[in-house]
Amino acid sequence: MDEKIKISAPKALYDLLCKDCADFKVTKKDGSPNMNAFLNTVLVNFYEEFAGAEEKLRDEVRAALADVPDRYRETAFLNALKVFTRRQTDIDDGETKVFAFKPTKNAEKAVVYIENMLAPNESLSSCYRRLFSAYAQKRKNLRERIVFKENYRLLAEAAAKGVKVCLSLVTGGVSKDASVFAVSAAKEELFNYVLFFDGKQNVTVRLSSVRTVSLLAAKSEIPPQNAALFERQVESAPQYPMYSSDREPIKVRLTNKGKALFDKIYLYRPTPKSVDGNVYTFDCSANQALYYFERFGDSALILSPKKLGIFMRNYYFYAYKAYRDRYPR
Fold first, then answer.
1. What count of other Cβ atoms lies within 10 Å of the Cβ of residue 287?
2. Is the pTM of this model over 0.70?
3. Where residue 89 falls among pLDDT bands split at 50, 70, 90?
4. Contact partners, residue 245, CB within 8 Å, separation at least 6
5. How wide is the angle at C-alpha 105 spanned by C-alphas 23 and 146, nearest 5°?
6. Would you state the torsion angle of the CA atoms of residues 308, 182, 268, 279, taken in this order, to the nearest 10 degrees?
7. What is the pLDDT of residues 277-324, one digit of tens each?
8. Can you tell me the distance from the alpha carbon of 169 to that of 25, in angstroms, rounded to the nearest whole number?
9. Beta strands in 201-316, from DSSP E residues, in sequence order
10. For residue 77, what are the CA distances in angstroms to 88, 123, 172, 212, 282?
């Protein structure tokens, strides 16, 4: 496995791979992105799924050509397959980027399979380009699950079976008897969040923050009140933890401009439980409401809970003071 694999691909595809590498925190010891490790991880964790899709495509093409005379069928099959593989959607911006990666020992099985089973009638560069293109066409939360395939599988299994896990984080922290509630994707389809009870409190971390997972024999133990908070969190926004203080519904009065902003600003938008004229009622965390509505200025007024309204008042007041001192007139 000494030779590098070179790939010629749309620059937009390469840029997406680089961004995923950084966003999913696949790094070297110095903290810089480790593209070689990232590309090897995608290859190892995704090639079987990609191979399955390729086999399905071949079966469908052969079935479609069943009525072609025998002496022409194989030629027609190969020509049709070339057309389909060429037309498989790439992220294409007109620019091309040539990049390379060196397969690791862990990738040997995937490389041997691809070279001998998937690419007999095309160049290796083309086959690898299609593999990474197929990965890139998935939603970001699904791509993250591919990169952290084994940890995601174990966490999902623990939640389904109701058993505890020993869980370590990239920051060095370890939870020796974590009870996993769920691995839930943000509604914006960006990242996945692991929700677990560590024996004392609810904890929420990014899937990419989990280093190792080991299943334990002990049954999960999540107190009912903590499970209820997790349920509300998953329903609202898994990236924003719910606390015991998040009891009271959040009521916000929107102006006409505020309503227009609410319809326009999708990212992290809480879902209203009810709308009564200009008053929107939410069952979300205080942090989500603050983060979302702080962009509205005087187009949104938090009516309740009172402490949340006071917090927002102070937020704008100190911002006003900073600007007033900078621009007195």
1. 16
2. yes
3. very low
4. 286
5. 35
6. -50
7. 999 999 999 999 999 999 999 999 999 999 999 999 999 999 999 999
8. 12
9. 202-206, 210-219, 250-254, 272-276, 279-282, 300-304
10. 16, 18, 53, 45, 56
